[in-house]
Amino acid sequence: MANEEFELDMGDLERRMDGAIASLRTEFASLRTGRASASMLEPIMVEAYGQRTPINQVGTVNVPEPRMVTINVWDKSMVNAVEKAIRESGLGINPQLNGTIIMLPIPELNEERRRELSRVAAQYAEHARVSIRNVRRDGMEQLKKAKNDGMSEDDHKFWHDEVQGLTDRFVGNVDKALEVKQEEIMQV
């Protein structure tokens, strides 16, 4: 490989880091900010038919008014499983049953709950940073292998800086997204 030109697949690393950001956005969407949103239920999985299933695959999720989410569960035998999944999700919502319809009244957020949600958002952001750093580590391992296979010191430094720059950019995006979300949560 000493004579070959090494080319690190930066597109692959960037795509994988983008995936971490997309996952973070989904998790942030699930954090309620005092307004009802169907997306707040997306991360919740229900134990249904022997496997974990998203709520929107066991019922219809609606937002009939600004402070209410309803789930019309298709299979009556699944109502209790859906209710249990919501209670255990950590959203802080108390489901109310009405036949096969589960109503989720969204209470006003008090200061303590806002701080708690802000900490949850920070945890989500940290998970995204860890995912991005894992992608960085994979890229650095490829560079290390290439260096052992005869890559020049200059090429190694160039690619190292490229991977680090990409990582820094994505971690910065996570930090910005967290700042925006925490501002939104703390807004009264």
UniProtKB/TrEMBL annotation:
GO molecular function annotations of the record: ribosomal large subunit binding
Q: Which UniProt keywords apply?
A: Cytoplasm, Protein biosynthesis
Alphabetized CDD domains for the sequence: RRF (cd00520)
List the Pfam families.
RRF
One GO term of the cellular component aspect? cytosol
A Gene Ontology biological process noted in the UniProt record is: cytoplasmic translational termination
Residue ranges the record marks as coiled coil: none
Entry's localization field: Cytoplasm
Q: Which SUPFAM superfamilies match?
A: Ribosome recycling factor, RRF (SSF55194)
Ranges where the Ribosome recycling factor domain occurs? 24-186
What NCBIfam families does UniProt report for this protein, alphabetically? frr
State the function annotated in the UniProt record: Responsible for the release of ribosomes from messenger RNA at the termination of protein biosynthesis. May increase the efficiency of translation by recycling ribosomes from one round of translation to another.
**Family, similarity comment:** Belongs to the RRF family.
Protein name, entry field: Ribosome-recycling factor
Q: What is the lineage of its organism?
A: Bacteria, Pseudomonadati, Pseudomonadota, Alphaproteobacteria, Rhodobacterales
Gene designation: frr
